Amino acid sequence: MKRSTFLKTLVGAAALSMTGIAALAQSGEPIKVGEINHYKRLAAFAEPYKKGIELGLEEINAAGGVLDRPLEFIFRDDQGDPGEAIKIAEELMTSEGAVMLTGTILSNVGLAISSVAAEKQWVYLAAEPLADALTWSQGNPWTFRLRTSTYMQAAMLAEQAAKTDAMKYATIAPNYAYGKDAVAAFKEVLTELKPGVEFVGEQWPALFKIDAGAEVQALERSKPDAIYNVTFGPDLAKFVREGTTRGLFDGRTVYGLLSGEPEYMEPLADEAPEGWIVTGYPWYDFTEEDGANKIFVDAYQARFNETPKLGSLVGYMTAATVAAAIQKAGSTDGDAIRMAFEGLDVATPVGDITFREIDNQATMGAFVGTTALKDGAGVMTDWTYLNGADYLPSDEEVAKLRPAE
Amino acid sequence: MGLFIAQILTGLANAGALFMVASGLSLIFGVTRVVNFAHGSFYMLGAYVGYSLMQVLPGMVGFWGAILLAGIIVGLIGVIVEICVLRPVYSAPELFQLVATFGVILVIQDLALMIWGPQDLLGPRAPGLKGVIRIMGEPVPQYDIALIVITPFVAIALWYLITKTRVGTLVRAATQDREMVSALGVNQAWLFTGVFFLGCALAGLGGALQLPKGGADLLMDFTILGSVFVVVVIGGMGSLPGAYLAAVIISVLNVFGVTYAPQSTLVLMFVVMVIVLMFRPFGLLGKEEIAGEHGQVGEPERPIKPAGNRMRLLVAAGLLILGLLPFYSGNFAVVLVTDIMIFCLFAASLHFMLGQGGLVSFGHAAFFGGGAYAAALFVTYADTPMELALVLAPICAGLAAIVIGWVCLRSTGVYFAMLTLAFGQLLWSLAFQWGDVTGGDDGLVNIWPSDWASDNDVYYYIAFVLCIGGILLLRQAAHAPFGYAMRAARDSARQAEAMGINTKRIQWVAFTFAGIMAGLAGGLFVFSKGSIFPNELETARSFDALIVVFLGGVKTLSGGWVGAAFFEGIKDYLTRFEYWRLALGLSIIFVVILGPEGIVGSLRKAGERFGILKVPEDAT
């Protein structure tokens, strides 16, 4: 589906729902998809994601559903516990009649489901977890990942960093796998692009237990030219506040992984940092020229009367991906869906994405820009959308990273 | 030099909120003997309430007024909780109230989500204190200075209240001997309520005071709980100066840890706690617990008897129904019951040492997760087949229990519990931090059963045999002479010693045996899930087991697995609903109030009342 046809579908869908014509797809039994997430533990991220899926489903079903049947997601809460998620996966696939699984934000839960998916031969679309291991070191033929991975996003920021004169970098990242991956990837790519850069300090606060004052003092002590930040959520808020108060960011460029996402920027309100180079989601800036992006944002705001987060976009794209995969498979058979995922093209608000055959990673990219304050809120300016396909290692390296199939 | 001083000031500022929350917990424990798990929730409420008030009240007066008001409001919420939830269960066995407070945590979590929404709230800055002052060239935020000044004032006010006023005298009297205080005509109920108000108000104050340094989010209740317990224990339970000292030590050490060993922050405070308790088993300024003072609240335990014929028939019938499950139910029921049985064995192992040995462990997950990790590591690095790994898992867990038990059993009571918690945390951080071997929090995956056992039904029977066998073995041990020795050591260590029982060794063996059984459960767990992550070693997992043991009934033989089956079953059902934490929390509170002797104890009572069960002759 080209973007123009995607637009037509959208417009058609909107027209259909507006005129109140009942959905066409009521003829068959619904196709069920099992969606497992941490709806309570990480409510701030999971709720927009869920709404994104709901919007996507409404449009898909209004346009005739999939294989002439309505598409339905069963939402289940796993409490952020991998063991619990596996039990729910079993229930969804064996007694609820789901044809495939989606979901999770936390990487460890995603890895747990991917492991059980490979063992039981269920298709699993890991929507939000970022861990590189999911498609590389622990990758398997049954797991596909939609969102831009840690490596890709870190590589985008490293590319920006390489353009500056800064030579001494300090990093701060939460002390767990995501933080470690993010720092390793940034170091790897930046050193490759600009040999001679020095990493003068590494800080590893415990996740959501940051002692921001002490971290800022430690970073200041290493006297870096620039700082690479991976903290997020409440940690980021505390870090920004202490860092601003103590003048850590004066005269230094900060590269913030995910820091520009509305999930993290909005709580900071007028204290959002200025001049950081970040990956994020500048939904507020979209104009008619941005086409599908703008249409999605408008539809989302009209439907839920709230602004979209990045999670909303990922949720919406999840629904679109599942619909496209099943449509392409032509059946709800697990193996057929898996085959359909290989090289699957999906039209999405950010453009067409492809699920790579080599590692099952989608080529979704990210918006990179500079933060600024506008009307008392943090926004991204001078942003561009970078295609994920350009920020992955070469095929030979990827083949080495993935276990033999 | 400037940096050094600035770092100390940062530490002192961080100590503020920590001290207030910890002193509240310490006060409540000292007087009511309630280990208030929900204390972190009151801290969270303080932050949220303070945030909302600051939106309404303007200016500097509004800001400080909001903090004070937040403390008072949270204190009043604490009073409601105390009157509705805790009063009915004061006469229950020691630590049973812990279950009730666990229910309160769940309820508050969902209510906070309903009221304030999911998004993190950034705390407003203190008016007039937004800048920094420079001390020897180093920037120090003005609000940090304010915190450094305020905290000693609060500490001194508290100290004055406790040592110089009549109310304080009563509180101290109640800390030492509750019954004597009430015999002297003091209304104990209102004294308890008053202390609960004060403790919760302090937690709320702490939550509101840290707003300018952070904000309010839905995870902060659990993030502070660990450090608060550590501070209370290092300082000495019930000691206010101790709490202040410990809060300062932990906070300052943490600041230096961040600078000079950035990876250490996960375990630093637990290492400090272990070291302190090794040399001062009752904390820095704590006093020795008076033995027996809080040993036997409520009805004395009944002697243990082998089950009667009717009961045996009933159990046999139950096992038959369970054993035939794969023949008449769907695939998911088999998976669910496998999960439940594994959890039952885990809970039963804790129940064994807690109920029979009186050893309250806050870190039993170390052996469950330890066994699971042992099995997973053998499979990953040595291609060990499942059959062998299932043998090695309990052995490794047992070896760990021998070492950990040796250290922990030097202390008793709450301090023993906290040492087990510290070791649980150390093991967790080992699994978490040592990514090259354990995979860090990406865990170890692809740990599946051997081919012949990969079918869910077959694995069900493996779990059935091993779990039921394990539970029966634990039961057998309780009836054996060893079980009698354990109960003797629990009820009166001195008399048991006089009879020639080496109580420490008995407890050590019991601890190890419980560890072995938990390790077996862990081994079964990892093959049923196919993967293992550090969260199976987390303190939360230990508390899951602790809660079901109390829920089932400590003073019964089957409380462990009954509680576990009930809890897992109801949780599986409730998580299908949107506000399941609220529902689960309320059900727990409901069960706790209705049956303060746990499910089994209360059912037995009801059975005797209605003549279904025979009343034993010696229980009149």
UniProtKB/TrEMBL annotation, chain A:
SUPFAM superfamilies: Periplasmic binding protein-like I. It holds the Pfam family Peripla_BP_6. The keyword Transport applies. It comes from the Bacteria. Residues 1-25 form the signal peptide. Coiled coil: none annotated. Keywords: Amino-acid transport, Signal, Transport. Residues 43-370 form the Leucine-binding protein domain. One of its GO terms (biological process) is amino acid transport. InterPro entries: BCAA_transport (IPR051010), Leu-bd (IPR028081), Leu_Ile_Val-bd (IPR000709), Peripla_BP_I (IPR028082). Belongs to the leucine-binding protein family. This is Amino acid/amide ABC transporter substrate-binding protein, HAAT family. It comes from Sulfitobacter marinus.
UniProtKB/TrEMBL annotation, chain B:
It is found in: Cell membrane. GO terms for molecular function: branched-chain amino acid transmembrane transporter activity. InterPro entries: ABC_transp_permease, BCAA_transport_permease, LivM-like. Keywords: Amino-acid transport, Cell membrane, Membrane, Transmembrane, Transmembrane helix, Transport. The chain crosses the membrane at residues 6-29, 41-57, 63-86, 98-117, 145-162, 183-206, 311-328, 361-382, 388-407, 414-434, 458-478, 508-527, 547-567, 579-596. GO terms for biological process: amino acid transport. It is a multi-pass membrane protein. One of its GO terms (cellular component) is plasma membrane. It comes from the Bacteria. It holds the Pfam family BPD_transp_2. CDD domains: TM_PBP1_LivH_like, TM_PBP1_LivM_like. Belongs to the binding-protein-dependent transport system permease family. LivHM subfamily. This is Amino acid/amide ABC transporter membrane protein 1, HAAT family /amino acid/amide ABC transporter membrane protein 2, HAAT family. It comes from Sulfitobacter marinus. The lineage of its organism: Bacteria, Pseudomonadati, Pseudomonadota, Alphaproteobacteria, Rhodobacterales.
